[in-house]
# Entry
Amino acid sequence: MTVASKKRLVVKGGTVVNPGSVAAADVLIVDGVVTEVGPGLDGDEVLDAAGCHVSSGFVDLHTHLREPGREEAETIETGSRAAAIGGYTAVVAMPNTDPAQDSVMVVEFVREQGRRAGLVDVHPAGCITVGRAGAALAPYAALAGAGVRLFTDDGNGVQDPLLMRRALEYARDLGVTLAQHCEVARLTEGAVMHEGSCCSNMGVPGWPSVAEELMLHRDIELVRLTGAPMHFLHLSTAGSVELVRRAKADGLPVTAEVAPHHLALDHDLLAGWDPVFKVNPPLRTREDIAALKAGIADGTIDAVATDHAPHAAHTKELPLDQAPPGMLGLETALGVLVTAVNPDPRRLCELMSWNPARIAGISDTHGRPVAPGEPANIAVWNAAEVWTVSRDALASRSTNTPYHGMELRGRNIHTIHNGRTVVKNGKALA
# Structure
């Protein structure tokens, strides 16, 4: 097949968002690569982008795909479909699977399942400790050799400070990044929600903000000691934002993410005892939400990551103290961010594409400019479209969305993965 006979895909009539510009232009894609950006382009397949922004595809730093081990809640295929519909072209798969992603065999299984789905690139995270048990370091060298760039025990914070120091030194020498779930477990035993007025009124154990902030402070100081880069997962409190702000002012190599639900929902929603609002870390106060938004505005927060956490209905319908924490997020993240924060297009792309790709170590193929010669991993999204979330219409195998019946503004329309249209007009094509 000659170059001239290859299929020409054109994204037509949109506004292209790049780090240095936001400008109206068509985008021509041939053989998985952007070949031209400009006016008046045409092709064999045309995606209508009128009224939309055209950007590099979104990258989620924090996706629970559940496979292997918990396929009743999600599979890599169903999670990939949800991600593609949400505008993602790559996701980092969290390692709290069964078995955990602490061996090359499990990591390769997850990656291969992602390839088979063919909707987004699935990048498995490795565990910091074997089995995420917090006792012995995982085989970083072998996992890094298998292409793992991010390591985390997400769901658990590494409690032992000496072990965490050794982990940071090991990661530094290998050129990989650790991502910490900040939670001092002794302070959160039995907790089901934020420790505050709502928790007191309900008479249930609360999760104090200091449980997150103590570990965050400890690990910032370990970064200062070791010089190793570190990423902090799903921060939720005003105190955490200030700690990261100070660490960055000191020039420390730290990055931080927030989840969409921590920008939009507060702890008072649990007053109705509905487990759909139970999450780890918990929904916080309106003052915390304001601080997180301020952190987004001033650059303290680097990324918005979904913490997509599907659960089978029979588990999420248990009483509040027994139900597992977690919410769906991949299909609603864009709408929640636009509705709750409404960042300008470039800042939105920094939070959802450019910075996450860099933190994940995949900026060679994702989070790239929409420009000639670049890989065609692209999202086409409409920041003005208003839609109502229905749990029954989501692609995820589970339905535990806290946004059911909620009106959001901002929705992904088309997704192009490796030059192939995988979502068109909001519908997955596979």
Q: What stands out?
A: Residues 3-53+374-428 form a domain with the Urease, subunit C; domain 1 fold (CATH 2.30.40.10). The chain has two domains: 3-53+374-428, 57-360. The radius of gyration is 21 Å. Residues 365 and 375 are 6 Å apart (CA to CA).
